[in-house]
Design a protein that fits this description.
mainly beta; 0% helix; four-stranded antiparallel sheet; elongated
Amino acid sequence: MYLTWAKVKSRHLLGYNVYRSTKEYTGYELLNFKPLVISRFADLAVEDSITYYYRRATVNIAQMEGELSDYALAIVPIKRFAVKDMYQSPYANPSGIVFDGHTIWTTDNLRGEIYQHDWNLKVVKVYKSPGEAPTGLAWDGQHIWSCDYKKRMIYKHGKNMEVIAKFKGPSYNLTDLTWDGKNLWVCNSAGEIFKLTPTGEKLASYKSPYSLATGIAWDGENFWVSSIHTRKIYKLDRNFDIADTYESPYLLSNGLAYDGKYFWSSGKVTEKIYKFGFH
C-alpha cells in the first residue's frame, strides 16, 4: 500500500510519522522507525481484503510530535491469476521450470533429475542433474542454466545437457534463476536476489518482498517473484519495489517461468504443473 500526502512547509519540520490501525479511532501503531523525510510511505505488510486506517503526524526538529491527522482508509484488493491449464506431474517433487521457446523443462530436486517436456507436458527426455538437488532453471536463448540447492552451484548446459560451464553461486540454498537478456538473476530461501554475469560475477543484490523466495521470472519489462510464505507472486519494478501483488494459484509454488504470454510454475504438494495468466 503506497501512501502520499501534501508536504508540510515549515523550517522547523524534521519529518513525519505514519500510524496504522484496522479500526477507525483506536489501535493505531507507528509504522516507521524514524521520522520520514519525504511525504510518502510504502506499507508492504498488508493482507488482502483488509481495511486499513492511516493517520499521519509531523515531527519537529525538537523531536516533538504534532497532532494526528484525520484518518484515510484503504482496502487491499485481492488479485488472482487465471489458471489456463493444469497438468499432473509425472514425478513427485516438481521444482524449477523454464520455457526454451519450444519445450518446457522442469526439475525434481529430490530425484536429482532434469526433464524435457512437450507442450502436453509429456516427458520427452530425462537427464541426471550434475548436482544433488536441482531447483531453478533458466534459458538464455541458447543454453539451459540450472542451480543446485545443496551444492551452491550454477551450471550452464550444452545441447545434450552436458555441463559446459559452472561456478559457485552467491549464497547457499539457491531456489530459482532467470535470464534478463544479458545477465542471470538468482534467488534463495533467505529472500535474497542476486544479479550475476554469465561468468558468476556478482553485480548487485536485493531483498525480495518476503523470505523464502521460491521462484523468479523476467517478462521483458519486470521481474516476478513468488514466495511460499505468503502464497503471493509479486511484480517488481526496476528498483525492486513492489509494483503489484497477485495470489498464487496454489500452495507451495516452486519455480516460476514466463513463455511470452503465460506464467508457468509447479506445485510441490499438489504434484501439478500450472499454466496461468491474467484474466
